[in-house]
Amino acid sequence: MTYPVSELPINVTLRGCTNESITVIANTSLALQFNRECPLYINASAYTLSSQSISYWDALNVWLGNVVSYYDGEPLILNGTVEVYATFLNGSRVPAPVLVNGSSTYILQSPGPSSLLLSINYLGVVNESLVRVFVVPSTYVEAEELLNSLGNPQFLNATIASAIMSGDWSLVNKIVTEYQEASSRPYDPLTQLSKYLLTQAILNGNLNGLNAASLILKYEMLMYTVLASIIIAVVVAYRVTRKSRKS
User: Fold this and answer.
1) How far apart, in Å, do the first and last CA atoms of the chain sit?
2) Among 149, 166, 165, which Cα is nearest to 202's?
3) How, if at all, do strands 125-136 and 74-78 pair?
4) Residue at which a domain ends, from 113, 136, 159
5) pLDDT for the residue numbered 48
6) Is the residue at 232 inside a domain?
7) Does 151 fall in a domain?
8) How many CB atoms lie within 10 A of CB 105?
9) Domain of 163?
10) Contact, 62 vs 86, CB < 8 A?
11) Same domain, 143 and 201
12) Residue 147 resides in a domain
């Protein structure tokens, strides 16, 4: 003996995102869509039974995690794996991966400008954002520290800006490396001379001074050896001359 299928009506009351009361059949789906952030309070009842729940519609905001600074309003990120995440409006993390150009792991190695498509799909809510970034090496952080310590000289500032735009960090790398080398060596006249020339080159934009400082740092020991040899030769020649006069 078969029994007819009984369709159980469920009374549903919605408050918050919308305010309405509807009747649906048990075990059916209810499709709702809202284009704003809001809570939806749901009360479902049938005969003497009832149940309540709350759902939230929220915006998904995507963020770059390894931003070190900004240039002309656009983020600077360190080369390597791009770090991304998404948050709700209250700042809590969205438990879903953010894709970068369609990939869950995206690596940027080459410095310079780049465009990234950040996308996330969470419970049917989709956010896609196209972001223009500048990829910079770790030298950028060291160059900024040097820039601040020297009082923000125009030449170094312009050199860093040019490197950000072009992706060519060779000159910035040279300046930072040479300055760190001169600052880390123990005190001696040639090292101090090279640091002075290097500082003046950075302040005045004099590349000849930069090259001169580099040569001193590179051949410092050779210069001391040559200088010592000259002094020894002069002393020996002086003694030989005195002996010749006495004889």
Assistant:
1) 145
2) 149
3) parallel
4) 136
5) 82
6) no
7) yes
8) 9
9) 139-227
10) yes
11) yes
12) yes
| Per-residue model confidence as pLDDT tens digits over 12-40 | 999 988 899 988 888 877 777 777 777 88
Q: Where does residue 3 rank: exposed (0-12), middle (13-18), buried (19+ CB within 10 A)?
A: exposed
Cβ-contact 118, 99 below 8 angstroms: yes
* Closest to 111 in 3D by CA, of 170, 70, 175, 176: 170
Please state the domain count of the chain: 3
Residues 101-127: tens digit of each pLDDT: 999 899 998 999 999 999 988 877 778
Same domain, 186 and 199: yes
Per-residue pLDDT tens for 200-232? Answer: 777 776 666 666 556 555 645 555 565 555 655
Which pairs with CB-CB distance under 8 Å and at least 24 residues apart come from 198-205? 199/150, 202/146, 202/150, 202/153, 202/155, 202/156, 202/175, 203/150, 203/153, 203/155, 204/155, 205/154, 205/155
